[in-house]
Every structure is written in structure tokens, then in C-alpha cells.
Fold each of these.
Amino acid sequence: MNMDKNEPEIRFEGFSGEWINKILVDVLSERKILQKISSDAPLLSFAAGQGVIDRSERKSNNRDHLTLDQANKIFKLTEFNDIVYNPSNLKYGAIDRNKHGRGVISPIYVTFTTEEIPSFIEMIVKSEKFKLRALIYEEGTVVKRQSVKPENLLSLDVNISPSLDEQTKIGNYFQKLDGLINQHQKKHDKLSNIKKTMLEKMFPKVDETVPEIRFTEFSGDWDEHSFTESFTFVGTNTLSRADLNYEQGNAKNIHYGDILVNFGQILDLNKEKLPFITSADIAQKLSSRKLKDGDIVFADAAEDDNVGKCTEILNVKNATVLAGLHTIAARPSQEHAPSYLGYYLNSNAFHNQLLTLMQGTKVLSISKTAINTTSIKSPKNASEQAKIGSYFQNLDELISQHQQQIIKLKNIKLACLDKMFV
């Protein structure tokens, strides 16, 4: 293919020839119909990342209370396949195709119709390249309220396939990709919500001795011990990110930022990549503090009440693994089933004990002394501990599988957007 021609790098079989460069004003026509809410045109919402949706689906704060006397207010009509955008929120991706259907939305939004294939045009105007070009026209003195006027948006040029059949195939392809992404996202979110609920219900609350939900074969009160009876502390270090690298070294180091952001309740060293301590001399001096399977590492500082989030170490094997900056490392005094403590110590059943012990304003922290005042609950039966740990690990594995598929499909989509459009 001659790359000097106005053609995409990748095309569906049977299509050839150059695409046409058009000014967007010749592609989109503004729909300016104003009307009240009616039975066939219900009040809808429009939000970045969600598009046109039913009001009940809005993820951001519901602002119905700001719209007084809705029955007599005039709204803007939108139909299925309209291209809708928010002039003030274009920078945040507030431009989308109406996939919901007929309804009315706030007059602050702009709606367009097109004689081209709407799903094809949608991919052009939602692309990062198009958005960056449009943002050149942002106006306004207050950054958060800067907007791109419709006439400026429509002044941009776009490259369009002259074949409606090719547009349809491209639009359908990306609709299928988006459908797969949405399917995995819904399953991911559902499993995440199940996990959140079970973390709440499968461990006894304060002043309770049994959990709300339990595997049927187990019964009886759980044990409760003080933290001081249950753990001893392991030495940590204060090495910063500057002292670490991901290439090579004799010892690996756990940074509190990774506990807060990157690691789950279980840190399986067969799956997670840890940075190395760059200095071999420092690594050698700290080697007596190395961690082993079952150890717990807490983040002792955070900008919110995530302080105290922790991770249980598994599959250390022969590696030297150390706990680093702003961490507290604790070693169980009694044997527990693998992964039980990682999930229990991150549940509200335990973490709520830390809330009144946190110190600070902008940055919160927790101390060893404070943690020592807490108590630990666990089933007497090690088999019950193991079953709880396995249950949550299986949930995490399913959640991770869907997350990996989402990432894979999004990468495919980005690559195709780059190669299937001019």
C-alpha cells in the first residue's frame, strides 16, 4: 500500500481507494429541537465515559435536586445514534454516540445527526487524536469551565471512507470490541462487589464471635487474641524509590506505595514483580530482616484511611525479601492457613479497629504501638481458615482474569484505532 495516499494501514477485504477529507460541518448537523419531558422522551443523563444513559445509571452524584419543576422545564431532544458532546467537558472525554435511545437531556449538551454511519463517526470523534485537536479551541478564563464551542468543533477536518459499507464494517467491528470489553467489565465489577460483600460478612464484627456467612460444615465461636499475642514485629528499612531498581539485585524490597496501589491482600512472589535494592552492601546489611511466607506487611502511612492496608507474603522460597519505607512488618506467632490473615486483616472486621488510632491531617499514619492495641479473630479449625483463604483467592483469580481480558481488548482497540483510520 502506498502510505502517501489517504488510506488506512489496515482495511477489510474488498475495500480500496482513498478516503475523503471533509470538514466536520459537512458531516454533522446540529439537532436543536427543544421540548418538555414526555412519555416517549424521558429525561436522560449524559456523562463522560458513560454517554447517554438512564438517570438511574449515572455514576457521578445525582443532581436531580438542582433541576426544579422538571415537568415544565425545556430540554433538548436526542435520538438514537446522535453524536452528543459536552462543550465544557470535552477534555474528559464527554463526547459519545447515543446508544440509549430517544429522550431529552440538558440544553447545555450539543447533539448532532449525520448521514454517515454513526458508529463509524463515533470512533473518529472519540479518538484521542481528535480530542487533542479540538482542545486547541478551548476558551474561558476558569480552567474547569473552559469549553469548545460547536462552531469550532465543526471547523475541524476528518478523513472518511466514501463507502457506507466500509464505514458499517468498521463501526460494527468496534461495537463488538466494546461489547466484549463491557461484558468483561460487568463480570469484573460483579465479582469485585461480591468480594467486598463477603469480606464484610465472612469475618465476625466487633463484639461478635461468629461471622454472618459461614461454610456449612463449620460451627462454634472463633478465637480472639490480642495483636501482641498473635504477632512479633520484623525489622524494616527506609529506602526510597531512588534506592531501588527493577533490573537486578540481591534483595527485593516492598515499598508502601505498592501496598497501597499495586498489591492485593496476597503478595504472591510467583506472580508479582518487586523492585531490587540497588546497593549490594545495603542489601547484605539488611538481610537479617528478610521476610518469609505468612508474614504481613502493613503500609503505615497514606493520604486517606487506607493507612493500615496490608499484604500477606507467599512463595518467598530462597529470595531475600525486605519490608521498606513506611511499612510495618509482622510475623504470626501461631500458624495460620496460607492467605487467611491477608484477607482478614484487610477486612473491616479488623481495619475498623485502626480508624480511631490513625494520626495526622494531610497524611495519616499508624504506629506499631497503636496496632498492638488491636485484636485478631480466627476460626479454631485450620480447615475453615484454609477454606476462607481459598475462597477469596479464587475470587481474586477470576477478577484478575477479567481485568487482563479488559486490558488486552483495550490494547487491541487502541492499535486498531491507529491503523484502521486515516
Note: The first helix runs from residue 118 to 125.
Amino acid sequence: MKKETAMVDFSQFDSLVTLTMHFNNEAICRSAIVETRWGVGEEQDVVCPYCGEHHCTSRKDGRFRCNKCKRNFSCKVGTIFEDSNLPLVKWFVAMYLISSHKKGISSCQLARDINVTQKTAWYMLQKVRSLYAQNTMEPFCGEVECDEVYIGGKEKWKHQSMRTPNTQGRSTKTKTPIFGMMERSSIANDKGEVEFMSYVRAMVVANTKGETLKPIIECCVEQGSTVFTDELNAYSGLANMGYGHRICNHGALQFVCDGAVYTNNIEGFWSHFRRMISGCYHDVSDEHLQSYIDEACFRWNTRKASETERFSNMFDLCIGHVRPNALFRLCGKAA
């Protein structure tokens, strides 16, 4: 007769209070990692993170030993918690706070919330952001909006003597160009009703020339799709590449044409991203800008998911239980 097994029920963690009441010590946190990675009871199959051998044996100290490569390891090996001396309770609380905040959480605020230094909080945020890798395998299809934005300080706020000449418009002297694509889609809500949903993908680019943007579109957007853009010359020639290209001329103050030709959705994402940077993080270096973009895309693509779903999926990512791309359509398309 098999022993009954009980996996961690993540649906119960609908608030920070319920989370901290359950994960209140190191042993429970470790047990949750072990159960989620390898199962429980007689069905448990511990896999060595070094050689991939199955059915590793447990030790009295709580670690495991591989019978093939003879190496000892803990449940944290192969996760973002590896080589971290922080209590897992603080990691779990930090993960919940990071996943539940709509516009993110700064390292200073996180440091105050879980009682660590700002440097440690920034390290934790960077480790979590490394899990937000965007899906590059599944191409967009149907109706896709494309647009570009420039992130950087505005010259008009600088003293006249400190301004960089010829930086207006699309200059990259003091600003970094970002290219984004947004697929118009739909999902089924809790009531079974179909409602609009959009999924975004964005990345730092060297420039906004056609030779840079077109290969990205060709890689990330399925041929035959309808692409909506503004009048930027870089997008010319998309029709010859197998796309239905519709243009909304912003220079002529055209923002919606024929009822469906617009880029308002992707521009709404840019507005959300700018508010996240200016209101929460205040300043982002070019070196780490892409990781912040990945975070913003994750938050946008999972905005209709509950805090429970976000934390559950983030937990699976943290322990390597699922691939980063599995988060891309957390809400799922409507059938």
C-alpha cells in the first residue's frame, strides 16, 4: 500500500499574511523545494543536479547523496538560492513581494521589508530578474503592433551649459533605443467570457534602422500576420517580406485609422514601463536595462493572473522546475 502524498498547495497563498504563516521556518521552506522538485513519499525521485542520476539517497543532515558521482548536495543546488546564506523565509517573502507589485519594488524598499542591506536586496532582485527571460521560440501571429521608444534623460531638464547638442528626436547620444512588439489576442476569463489580451516582447537595440528592426520582426512575427506601425521609414518593405503592413501616420496626427489601425496598445506598455522606471527605480544603467525590460514584459504579460498564480510560477522558475518561456502565456489564450 502506497503512502499518501501531499504537495504544497500554492493556491492558499492569496496574501502575504497566509504566506508568512505557512513558510515560517527554514525546514518548511526546504521541504517545499524538495516536494516541488522531486515529489513526496514513495513517489519521490531525487535527481542529482551534477550528473542527472535518479533515486539519490537522503542523508541525516537533510542533504542528498548521489550513488553514481558520489557527490553530496542540498535542495538549493541548481536554484537561485544556491550559494546564498540568506534564510529561505526571506527569499520566499521577497519573491512574493516582487511578483505581486504591479510596477515592481525598489531594492531600498525590499531591504526595509525583509530587513537586509540594500546591496543584498539588489542582488536578490537581479537574481529574480534573471528568471524573466522572454520567449523567443513562439512567434507572434495575427495582429501585431510594432513601435520603438528611447529611454534616457531629457536635455530640457539640464542646465544650458550641460546639454548635449543635437540630441532631439531619435538621437542615441544620451538615450537608448528599445524596440517592442505586441500581439493582439484574447483570453477566457473566470466567467467564461472572451476578453481582449495583449502580449508584449521588447529588447534593447543598437538603432532603429530597417536593417536592425526587420530581422527582429522576421524572427519574432509569423509571416502572413498583419503588422501595425507608425510612418517610420525603417518599416518600409514589410509587405514584400510577407506581412500585411498597415501604417498609422502619427506625423499627420492620425492615431486611429479605419478603426483598427493603431499602435495604442504598445504605446500604453511604453507608458507603463516609463512609470516603472521613473516612479520605482528612478534610474537604470544601460548595462542592466534589458533585465528591467524583461521584468516589465513579465508583469504586462501576466497582469491578469492572480498573486497566487504569479508566486506559484515564480517559485517553479526559481527552483528550475519549469523553463522561463513557460511563463510567457501564464494567462493562456482563449480557445
Note: The chain has nine helices and eight strands.
Amino acid sequence: MKSLRDVEKTRLDSYEDAQKNSTHRSSLLVPTIPNTQVSISFLNHFLIKRNNPNVGLRLTAVDELGARISTRLFPINEPRVYTFHLQRDFCTHATSYLVEFFSSSNMVIPFPAVMVNHRGPRSYSTVHSFNRVLNDIFEDDEINTIQVEEGAIDIAQDPLTSTFFTVYAGQHRLQDEIGLRFKSNSMSLSTTLAVDIPRLTHQIFTLGSVFPEIEHQQGVLLIRQPRQDMFYGRLLVGQTLPSGDLSANHSYYDGSQVAGEYWDDAQPSHRTYPIVDGLNTSIRIYPIQSASTLGFTVLIKDASGSTLATSKEFELVSPGNAWLDIDINQLIASFDVQPHTARAFTLIAKPKTGNTPMRINHQLVFSGSGLESSINVSMQNFNILHSNDRPRTTWGQLIHSANYDTWLAFANDGESSESSIVDVKFFSESGLEKTTQVSINQGTSTQLLLSEVLGEAVGDDQFIWFEVESPNYFLTEWSVSKHKISGHCMGEHSF
């Protein structure tokens, strides 16, 4: 874990001198998962955002023993979406794939903006890159100095659904123990798990097989990974059905034992989220913030950004045994609010004493009639380093498919009361497909249905990427999709 203060310092250094501590390689490891097909997708932001045509992508297929099967280099030099179906088009029998980007020009950020997509029979699991082989010993010093447990793990409650987590080995064989801790108001349990994982491969575990006492229990699960030299990796965690359908996201740091991770004042943190018609929405907050007692409030917003209703205060103590699960639909129903007028909600966090923790993490959950999509999110705070002069570019992936309804939602948490008017560019593998203008009022959300923007999907599923440029640093986009038959959901935040 790298402290957020150090992250902020690195960003400031980059603002002041774009060539300082330059980056020329970024990477990720991609796991195969039984009964699914895996692909990666990304927009060539190297060229579109940074005008860098000198990028190469090297794919390496790795077998179950960590040996290389084959490697191939691809030039990344066109302003379009790139999609690689790793099993179908590259190597059918690999255990994992090492994805590396190289450039003679400064790439600025060592973590690539790549989506990892596992397609099940009637589901997609979509998650941005969540691990990497580090570039040098200096990056290892920065990333691996602070060791913490991984949290933000949703435990499946449906008895037909299993909770799983995936542990990756870096450049060396991983022979060690994984520690698991579970806590709730009624119990506290722990166990250890011996692992022997070949380099550059992974192992998938289900709670039912390694920690059956807590399967389908409500509580806080923390997982301790061993330190691995020259490797950084969050866990891929999620829920799966016997059919092979799954929904997953990455874990997040448990910062409750880390000293000094506070802003210099008690200014509240906040975040605004969309309400999507036909979907249930929840917020789950686990006690993994820096030591604190936080009061959370939910404001229900209409399309103009006006507050329709304000919830009671929900209190969370971190570290602790209790966690919050706030059902937004039930909350709206408890107020004298017409459901169709509620277009967004804002979550606000205030410290009871002391300063505000820098990292206040939680899960944004969308669900239909099937598997839920749990998106890992950190709250906004106006103390974070940002510019009101430089335009900020954000982008993300959407699925264009006849089998899915897909929404692109926008949320405006800006400091100004003015609305944000932006041009939204949609890219495919052929290049720029369409540009649409959207206006988002401050403090609320608006959304687009992808089929209404690009027309009904025909043929194979296609990954579409959007790009938004705005001087509003606190404008965020969200992609949400639901399978029309199974009701399984998927979603992710913008980069």
C-alpha cells in the first residue's frame, strides 16, 4: 500500500514536471476462471490523451507451472478501442496472461487503464486492472513499504451463490500462508491457509471450502496476503453460481491500522451516485477507514440537484465489528418522495471527532433479479489535489450487446453550483463512433441508455469506450449493465 499523502505528492510532482520520475512500462496479470472466457479491453488513451504513438503491447501466455507458452507484440498506435480475446484468439490453454505496455515516451502512470472481462453463460464480470509486476526496486519501495489486510469483500447471502477470492503469485513462486479474519457483533473467527502458487499464476478459493464457518454469514471479512517482492496485487473477489456466471471486483486496503492517513481538517467527504430505473441500489461501508467514528448521511436528489429528503445519521466505528448496508430503494420508500423524481443520492461522511480520514472506501451495489454488481469506490473530498484550470479527461468501458441493457451515468460533485456541459465521445474498435452532449446539474446525476445512443446492438458483443473532458475534477461516470434474462448486473467507475 502507498499512503495517500505519497500518492498526492507524486501527482503534484507530475503536475510541476511531466518528465520527473518517468514511467516507461505498465502491466497487469489476467486470470483464467473456469466456465468463462476472458478478454481485455482498453481505449488508446496513450495516443488520444497524451499524444503518444510509441506504445507496444506484449502479451505472454503462462501455463500452470509459471512457464511461458508464447509471447507476441502488438503495436498500439490508432485512436480506437483495442480488444483481445485471450483464450479465443491468443492461447486457448493458458492459466494466466501477463499484459505489458512499453513506450520510449513517458507513460506517466504505471497502472494501465485496462478492463478485465470474464464472460459467463449469462453474465460478465468487469473489473479494472488490479495487480501488476512492479517496474523497479524504487517502485517496490514505494508500494510495498506498508503492508495491510485486504477488505471491502461482500459475502454472498444467497445459499446457491458462492463467495470466491483469487490470490496471485508475482515473479516468484508463492509458498506462504494466507490469513483470514471474520468479525461481526456476534462472533470473531480466524484461520490460515497454506498456499503454493507457481510464479505469475493464481489460485481461486471459495469461502465454503476454506472457511465454511462464515459462508453466507453477515460480517466483515479481512484477508492478509504475504508480501511479495516486486509485485503489487489486490484480490479479485466476487460471487459465482454453479452455472459459471459470476460478478467480481477488487478488494481494498484495510487502513484502520495505518497511522496518519487524515486530511488536515474535518471537511466532510462526499460522493453522488445515480439511481437507475429498474435496479436496486445499496451502499455497503466496511470499517476499514483510518481509526475514526464517522457519521454517514444520505441525501436523495432530484434531476435539478435539489434535496428531496435527508436520512438519519448512520454511525460507523473503524476499526470495528459492525458495518453498514444502506438500501437506497427502501430509504426512498420510507420518505414522502415519488420514486420517479429521485434521480440520484449523495453520501456524506463527517468525523465525530478529529480530522477526516483520507480514504473512506465503500461498495456501490446495483442489483436486479440475479447476481449483484459491487463497485469499489472511494469518497471525494475537496482537499484532494485538483485543478480548476486544467481539463480532466476520464474514460471507461461499456458493453454493447443485444443481451444487455447498458447505462452510462454521470454524477456531478463539483465545487461550483453550475452544471457541467460535456461532449461524450463513444469509441469502438473502428474508432470514434459518435459524440453526444450531456448536461449534469451540480449535486445530481443524469444517464444515457447505450442502445438509444448507438442503436440496438447486432452481432457479437462489443466493448465501447467513452471519453469525457471537463474542467470539473469531481465529475464521475458509471457504467451499469443488466442481462435481460438472468438479471445479473455488472458495473464499474470511470478511470
Note: The first strand starts at residue 25 and ends at 31.
